[in-house]
């Protein structure tokens, strides 16, 4: 537990730096957009006792194939399908059955899920659009949680080529990149 608490600030450092950079960009009315790389997403994983939390963030291009507000029936169907897939985290993130994990909470955020027009959209400005998902699980046998398999995620969302993972577990912190050819993370 002490190791987990000591590692937490280091795991959150990239998030704090990204937030500071994002806040800096908002200070400049005509500044450039924050870094946004298509095909690449991020996943923060934290296991503390029986609680497992996953925070996923990636460009909507990776998950639905576009970043604009869905206006056509085809685009609306893609957004609805992606949302439905994201609402099934136990399918997307293959956790060992022996760990006995159940989904307790989830939250999905994206401008695509809220079709209210964005400021500047009428002017034809380009906005990067991300999809964020937060999941909380309770695992009755956390010691059996040895791996997290992202194979199904990569199959469901083939526009995602790399997921940069920050993982905190009982053995400490690690930073890895998951790809379709190397989709399994070890705790």
UniProtKB/TrEMBL annotation:
The keyword Signal applies. Residues 1-20 form the signal peptide. Pfam families: ZrgA (PF10986). It comes from the Bacteria. Keywords: Signal. This is DUF2796 domain-containing protein.
